[in-house]
Amino acid sequence: DAKTTQPPSMDCAEGRAANLPCNHSTISGNEYVYWYRQIHSQGPQYIIHGLKNNETNEMASLIITEDRKSSTLILPHATLRDTAVYYCIVREPSRMSAGNMLTFGGGTRLMVKP
Amino acid sequence: GAVVSQHPSWVICKSGTSVKIECRSLDFQATTMFWYRQFPKQSLMLMATSNEGSKATYEQGVEKDKFLINHASLTLSTLTVTSAHPEDSSFYICSATPLAGLSSYNEQFFGPGTRLTVL
Lengths: 114, 119
Description:
The structure holds two protein chains of two kinds. Chain A contains no helices and nine strands. Chain A starts with 8 loop residues before the first strand and ends with a strand. By secondary structure, chain A is an all-beta fold. Chain B is mainly β. The chains are: A mainly beta, B mainly beta. The interface between A and B is medium-sized, with 24 and 31 residues.
């Protein structure tokens, strides 16, 4: 069962900010929001994660609404190399490593255009 | 970040043969690795959870006798596609989570994938 909803595709102009939304209205209190991306014919790459506070790293920023029912991944200055499928996943971290599988939904195919 | 490798990166085989895919964590140990399969233009689907020193746990609909998983050490898991058929052609991806203490948020690190084509 999908826990997240994302638009299937988005376009963004090179150099502009890319804002990728994700709806997770049924998220529970212990579940984190993770973002991964998959460039064509490669394995997924971890981007960022958060629980309730906004987060920023060298790749992106994650904005989580106060009610935690949705979030937005922001790539501040998109480049052509950011063209990929972006997956938003909610999951409760498990102390047992076997419980850490990820359930991928359809993701958003971001096309960065020159 | 932690690095996971897969070998081979691509393989073409004849129908009826078996193919082995290796997944290695290069700079960390992982008691658990995961195997995913991805068909063209689709998302990743979890096939099985590979547990070091014990049997793998397969997702519903995945044939354990066809997709043999061996997790012989804390840095190596292998997936063998036995008696491969054209419908097994897919992109196979593994991932691993470092042992507790190395990643407090249970990040998963993915391999680059192996593209299998069965003729």
